[in-house]
Design goal:
The protein has 221 residues and is of the alpha/beta class. The chain is built from 8 helices and 5 strands.
């Protein structure tokens, strides 16, 4: 079966995948990247934090379970430092070449994890994000939503990184933070029920993205 033609409307767009740990977004991320490549798009995939030499070093620090005393404000600034390199070195150059850029996490993660769950004011995070990203905003944010208990059941306890190991109450606040963002910006956010079987999640993702891709055919706001 050939890839659907509407995928071509994603060329030159910046699409971010978001969701709580255990939501299954990484699996769907890989599937979409492969499908878009098969459709003839040039796809640049990035992960946040990471994606550049400096960013990967920062990622190691952020996910190190030995660093139990790191403050939330320090976390936020480290994420933004990695993100600044990612935007400068990978994302903006790819968009300028009309690539589809798929990002595994971006600023919405910081708003959910360090903001809603960690207690930092959203306005502070947004102010730093404007500097780090040069004001870059995703064309679409795909949010894979799942209950925190169901998400935790999908993770392997002995392999949890520092952020994954923060407990159910923390991840409940993360989920609510994401849902609040989606409610506040429904034109940008695509909400996908990640509690369904993988095939059903994939079908819902494609159906939702098709609606956004058709909207992309109209002039940018």
């Amino acid at each position: 079966m050939s890839p659907p033609p509407w995928l071509r409307a994603l060329a030159g767009r910046f699409v971010v995948f978001e969701g709580p740990d255990g939501s299954g977004k990484s699996t769907q991320f890989r599937r979409l990247s492969e499908l878009c490549t098969a459709a003839g798009l040039t796809v640049t995939t990035v992960r946040d934090p990471g994606g550049t030499p400096a960013g990967e070093r920062v990622r190691e620090i952020l996910l190190d379970r030995a660093l139990t005393g790191m403050s939330v404000r320090c976390e936020m600034l480290l994420y933004m430092a990695s993100r600044a390199e990612l935007v400068e070195q990978r994302i903006l150059p790819a968009l300028q070449q009309n690539h589809l850029v798929l990002a595994d996490r971006f600023v919405p993660s910081t708003l959910a994890y360090q903001g809603a769950a960690g207690g930092l004011p959203g306005a502070d995070i947004a102010a730093v994000a404007r500097v780090a990203t040069r004001g870059l905003m995703p064309d679409a944010v795909v949010l894979f939503d799942i209950d925190e208990r169901a998400a935790a059941a999908r993770l392997r306890p002995l392999l949890l990184d520092r952020m994954e190991a923060k407990g159910l109450d923390f991840h409940r606040r993360v989920r609510q933070g994401y849902l609040d963002q989606a409610k506040a910006d429904p034109r940008r956010y695509v909400l996908v029920d990640a509690s369904k079987p993988e095939a059903a999640v994939w079908a819902e993702l494609l159906a939702s993205l098709r609606v956004r891709a058709e909207a992309f055919a109209s002039p940018r706001d």
